[in-house]
Amino acid sequence: MVQAIKIQKFGGAEELQLVDIQLPKLQANEVLVKNLSIGLNYIDVYHRTGLYPIPLPSGIGLEACGLVEEIGSGVTLFKVGDRVAHSSMPIGSYSEKQVFPQEKLVMVPEGISNEVASVVMLKGITAEYLLHRSYPAKKGDKILFHAAAGGVGQILCQWANAIGCTVIGTVGSKEKEAIAKKNGCHHVINYTDHNFVEEVEKIVGKNGIDVVYDGVGASTFEGSIEVLKIRGMMVAFGNASGYVKTLDIKKHINTKGLFFTRPSIAHYTVTRKELEDSAATVFNALLTGKFKVDIFKKYKLSDAKQAHQDLEARLLTGPSVIIP
Ligand SMILES: NC(=O)c1ccc[n+]([C@@H]2O[C@H](COP(=O)([O-])OP(=O)(O)OC[C@H]3O[C@@H](n4cnc5c(N)ncnc54)[C@H](OP(=O)(O)O)[C@@H]3O)[C@@H](O)[C@H]2O)c1
């Protein structure tokens, strides 16, 4: 038996229960991983509330770094003792141990700590595909990133700065303004007490943004469309403030001939090669200083409820982990 967080039904943070679970019997292609550090992500909240419905009862969590403890008879990619990380299904990283098909795991290189590895698999790979593949950002591009002091935000904004983009970030509090500045933003707008459209226009003029990366959703969507240039790119990749339910092609797209995508990490790690290449790009960017990661807060497995309450209260100003 191992300790893990489970939910029986969708709901508030109180649904996260620490329980003893029996792990499934290891199949030929599977690897048993002992988690050393677990990444906290906003998508964990969507799974818990049912915004992204999952079969119940369920574990929670999609990102971790750990040690290979046992391998199935057909496993060729890993051996016992390897340090690995993952960012994908099956859901259930909030656990002391987890069983994975071998093709979902990658090796963690020397020089990257367990904690950092556990926050760059989902957040870092997301930053990689957003910045290099959903819209390949280039030197001189003017980009707008919402919630720039958040987990994905800190990584992407530093990386975009290293590419040579002009990075404008929005944040929800005074305290986060300095954090976003420290993490790659050339300009920071507090969108709780300023109209971010007006502020962006002061910086780059009307219709001046090449690409908006919008993980906030409902509360920022209309303004994001408004600041984009003619033929700009809208990358809507999350819903921290609520889901954008309708897209009006005439109003949102046709007026400026915009490009629109609503990607998820799963669309950009479809094959083993895509996963390996993306993870290698992220690890390499970390090791060569394109971005760095400071872990903001560490929780115990038994503190998962508090961790979700802090996430939803917008109190996490950086990548945070659960140490089982
Ligand atoms: N599509 C994908 O592949 C993919 C992958 C990873 C993450 N994501 C998305 O990317 C976004 C960032 O993820 P993350 O894990 O790094 O989270 P995060 O940015 O650390 O946390 C979410 C942030 O959203 C902002 N926010 C704005 N309105 C909010 C509201 N009403 N309630 C709560 N937060 C609000 C808050 O920052 P401020 O206080 O500064 O506003 C909050 O800190 C999320 O939407 C997530 O779902 C998408």
Structure report:
It is globular, with a radius of gyration of 20 Å. It folds into two domains: 150 residues, Alpha-Beta Complex (Quinone Oxidoreductase, Chain A, domain 1), CATH 3.90.180.10; 142 residues, Rossmann fold. The protein is α/β, with parallel strands linked by helices. The strands form three sheets. Strands 3, 5, 6, 7, 8, 15 and 16 form a seven-stranded mixed sheet that branches. The model has no long low-confidence stretch (mean pLDDT 97). α11 links the parallel β15 and β16. The chain contains eleven helices and 16 strands. NADP nicotinamide-adenine-dinucleotide phosphate binds next to α1, α3 and α4.
Provide a quick synopsis of the model:
The protein is 31% helix and 25% strand.
- Count of helical stretches: 11
CATH topology of the largest domain: Quinone Oxidoreductase, Chain A, domain 1
Helix percent band: 25-40%
**What are the bound molecules?**
NADP nicotinamide-adenine-dinucleotide phosphate
Number of strands: 16
Q: What average pLDDT do the residues reach?
A: 97
Which structural class fits the helix and strand makeup? alpha/beta
Which parts are unreliable, with pLDDT below 50 for 5 consecutive residues or more? none
User: What shape does the CA trace take?
Assistant: globular
Proportion in β-strands: 25-35%
- H and E order: EEEHEEEEEHHEHEHEHEHEHEHHEHE
CATH class category of the largest domain: Alpha Beta
Radius of gyration (CA) equals 20 Å
How many separate domains make up the residues?
2
CATH superfamily of the largest domain: Medium-chain alcohol dehydrogenases, catalytic domain
Q: Tell me the span between the first and last alpha carbons.
A: 14 Å
* Biggest sheet record: 7 strands, mixed
CATH architecture of the largest domain: Alpha-Beta Complex
